[in-house]
Design brief:
The chain is α+β, with helices and mostly antiparallel strands. It has 9 helices and 8 strands. Helix 6 crosses helix 7. The protein is elongated, with a radius of gyration of 24 Å.
């Protein structure tokens, strides 16, 4: 599964020239905690989140953080005239639409971010992947994982009759046993199964008819 398969499309965006107050109204109205910032060509140039608003408040020497709603719509209307470009995180980390979901999870974890804009080769926004999207991919039903293993890995890639194999999935753990044509097939089956989204571990008990890793004598 790739980023393009789980990303949210039709993402609400703002431009750097928008006021912070307008951006905050949009975030609250859409029920989101962050917005990609795009230029006139639709390329991602930044991202604005609730954390950015709070950081802006902290820089003013406030003794405590205020909720976004209070900050934006309080009596003082502090950020009324300030711009998104002044508070956004510029040049945010992005991801290619064809990147694997596991790669998106790794990037989010290493960089401590909650969302990744998905962009094309020109940097134009295609969608956004959130932590919730990634988590959803890793809690796929066992039956869906088994069906993909049988159809995509065993039948289509390895071209093996899955009826010759015992395949089951329980709580994300794949169990596969039986005999395959070659030792290489056994290795590939185990490795490709482990790469499927939602798979926690692969327990393989495979034998093979031909050891094709041994050079002819």
């Amino acid at each position: 599964m790739r980023a393009v398969d789980i990303m949210s499309k039709g993402v609400v965006t703002v431009t750097p020239e928008e006021t912070l107050k307008a951006a905050a109204r949009l975030m609250i109205g859409e029920g989101v905690s962050g917005l990609p910032v795009v230029d006139g060509a639709g390329a991602v140039v930044g991202i604005i989140t609730e954390a950015d608003f709070l950081a802006k408040e902290a820089s003013r020497g406030r003794t405590r953080y205020r909720r976004l709603l209070d900050t934006i719509f309080g009596e003082e209307e502090i950020v009324k005239a300030e711009l998104v470009s002044e508070a956004m995180t510029p040049d945010p980390i992005t991801i290619d639409p064809h990147a694997r979901v596991s790669e998106a999870a790794r990037i989010m974890d290493e960089n401590k971010v909650k969302r990744l804009p998905v962009v094309d080769t020109a940097g134009k926004l295609l969608g956004i992947v959130s932590r919730a999207d990634v988590v959803g991919a890793f809690i796929r039903p066992d039956e869906v994982i088994e069906a993909q293993l049988r159809q995509d890995v065993i039948r289509r890639i390895l071209m093996i009759d899955d009826k010759e194999l015992a395949v089951s999935v329980k709580d994300g753990i794949v169990m596969v046993g039986g005999t395959v044509p070659t030792k290489t097939d056994a290795r590939l089956l185990e490795e490709l199964a482990a790469r499927l989204e939602g798979v926690i571990r692969v327990d393989a008990d495979l034998s093979w008819r031909v050891d094709d890793t041994i050079a002819p004598g």
